[in-house]
Design brief:
Number of helices: 7
Distance between the termini: 38 Å
Number of strands: 9
Structural class: alpha+beta
CATH class of the largest domain: Alpha Beta
CATH architecture of the largest domain: 2-Layer Sandwich
CATH topology of the largest domain: Alpha-Beta Plaits
């Protein structure tokens, strides 16, 4: 098939590895997804469902450091497992634009439900829209519609170690998200206490830096990233149509 002018321009902007991986009809669909991003911070859509139980999610956003880590946090929050990924970058409007594809299934196995995938897509967009800002804590503890709490204090019994306290509405993948973000920030867990009361996670982690860097900047970055994920998951749940 002959490519449309829009798809041809899109194809020329993509790396050679992309051009060899997708057919013309795929390129047409990808070009449309990219165009529909418009001026939004990001667009995330389920591009294709495969017979073997995998779904391919396409994420289009301004390229930036930590983009894949943010997107991966959303996958963890929605209990989705990445089986494969293809990551691309192309020039666009003076800035690089990421056009990424992720092959997904449920962490527990089997095909991911459409509602789960759409909720994850909303979370990704919320995360990327707020990536440049620090989430604000408006209340000391969570409840229905309440804010999350993430605090850390030095452990007087162990120099260099900190106690991290988390209170937030529980959701599938929360513990995995915490563990991944701690590791990404150079922090390791020596012990933890995990408890959930009436849908609210009340967890404690004792952590220390494994990079040799001061722990406090790492903890600040971890706190901001975790609150960003929690906020995005909450917003994506609120935005879900009735019945999802």
């Amino acid at each position: 098939m002959a490519l449309s002018e829009q798809a041809s321009r899109f194809l020329q902007s993509m790396p050679a590895t992309y051009r060899s991986a997708f057919a013309d009809e795929d390129v047409e669909e990808h070009a449309q997804i990219v165009r529909e991003r418009g001026g939004a911070a990001a667009r995330a859509v389920v591009w294709r469902s495969l017979p073997q139980g995998l779904a391919i999610l396409c994420v289009v956003s301004e390229d930036r450091p930590g983009l894949v880590a943010l997107v991966s946090s959303a996958f963890l929050a929605h209990a989705l497992d990445v089986r494969s990924a293809q990551i691309y970058s192309r020039p666009g409007d003076g800035r690089l634009e990421a056009v990424d594809f992720f092959w997904l299934r449920n962490v527990a196995g089997g095909a991911a439900e459409q509602e789960r995938l759409e909720a994850c897509a909303r979370t990704i967009c919320q995360l990327l829209e707020s990536a440049g800002s620090t989430p604000q804590v408006t209340a000391p503890g969570p409840g229905p519609g309440g804010a999350a709490r993430v605090d850390y204090t030095p452990d007087p019994a162990a120099p260099g170690q900190y106690e991290v306290v988390l209170e937030a509405r529980d959701f599938p993948g929360l513990l995995h998200t915490v563990a991944r973000l701690l590791h990404q920030q150079g922090l390791e867990v020596s012990r933890c206490e995990i408890r959930t009361d009436e849908g609210v996670a009340r967890d404690r982690f004792w952590v220390a830096s494994f990079t040799g860097e001061p722990a406090e900047p790492q903890l600040r970055a971890f706190r901001a990233a975790l609150l960003g994920v929690i906020d995005a998951v909450d917003k994506s749940a609120v935005a879900a149509p009735a019945g999802e």
